[in-house]
Amino acid sequence: MTPLVEFVGVSRVYGQVVAVDDLSLRVSPGEMAFLVGPSGAGKSTLLRLINREVRPSHGEVWVDGLPCHDLPVTRLAELRRRVGVVFQDFKLLPRLTALENVAFALHVTDLRISDDEADERSLDALEAVGLYEKAASYPGELSGGQQQRVAIARAVVSQPPLLIADEPTGNLDQETAWQITGLLEDIAKFGTAVLVATHNMEIVARAQRRVLSLASGRLVDDVPAGRAARMLWATS
Ligand SMILES: Nc1ncnc2c1ncn2[C@@H]1O[C@H](COP(=O)(O)OP(=O)(O)OP(=O)(O)O)[C@@H](O)[C@H]1O
Ligand SMILES: [Mg+2]
Fold first, then answer.
1. What SS3 string covers the chain?
2. Domain of residue 65, CATH code
3. Number of structural domains, the chain?
4. 43 lines ligand 1 (CB under 6 A)
5. Which of 21, 39, 55 for mutating ligand 1's site (highest number of atoms within 8 Å of CB)?
C-alpha cells in the first residue's frame, strides 16, 4: 500500500540541537498511531514537519504524494487541505460560535464554498462529534472536552486524509481524555489517518494502537497495534 506519510532519512537541526535525527517512518492511509517519548524527544517537531511548519534540514517528508521538504509556498494550500491539525489548547476563535469556528475553516480551505453549504457541512461535523446542540455556543461557554470536540470537527470538516494532534488531551481530565481518544479512533475508522503525540501512557496502553517511540530525535521503537500493553509492561 502506498504510504500516506513517509519520512526518508529526515533530520531537523536547531543550532546545536538535533530535534529529529535521521528518522524514517511510514504511516498507512486510515492508520492511527501514537507518538510518545520524553519531553524534547522531537514529537512536536515531527508533527510540524508534516504540515510544513518547519522544513527538514536533511531528508524527505512525503504527505499524500506531496513533497513537503520541497513544496513551493504556492502549493502550501494543497498540503493544508490534506492535513487537519488539533492542538493541546484547542485554538478556537473566542468571538465565533462553535458553528462559525468550523465554517471559518471550510471557507479558508475552499474559497468558493457558499455560506449555506459551509454551515450545512459544519453542522454535520458538529453532529459527528456529538455537539449539534452546542452549534450556537461560544468557546467560553463550553467545557474543555467540548472545545476540543469543536476543534476536532474543525480539523476534519473538509475530510482530510490525515489528522495530526499534538497533546490533544493534555488539558483534559483522564475520563474526558479517553472520550476524546475514542472520537479520534472513530475518525480513523472512517478512513482518516490519525497521528497523536501524547504523554498520556495510560491512554496509549488502553487504546492498543501503533506506538512510535522517540528519544533524542530518533525512532527507537515502533510497536504495532495490539501490543502496546506488553511493551509498557516490559519497560515499567
Ligand atoms: N523553534 C525551535 N528553536 C530551537 N530549538 C527547538 C525549536 N523547536 C524545538 N526545539 C528543540 O528541539 C528538541 C525537540 O523539541 P520538540 O518540541 O519537538 O519535543 P517534544 O517531544 O515535542 O517535547 P514535549 O514533550 O515537551 O512537547 C528540543 O530540544 C527543543 O528544545
Ligand atoms: Mg511537544
1. CCCCEEEEEEEEEECCEEEEEEEEEEECCCCEEEEECCCCCCHHHHHHHHCCCCCCCEEEEEECCEEHHHCCHHHHHHHHHHEEEECCCCCCCCCCCHHHHHHHHHHHHCCCCCHHHHHHHHHHHHHHCCCHHHCCCCHHHCCHHHHHHHHHHHHHCCCCCEEEEECCCCCCCHHHHHHHHHHHHHHHHCCCEEEEECCCHHHHHHHCCEEEEEECCEEEEEECCCCHHHHHHHHC
2. 3.40.50.300
3. 1
4. yes
5. 39
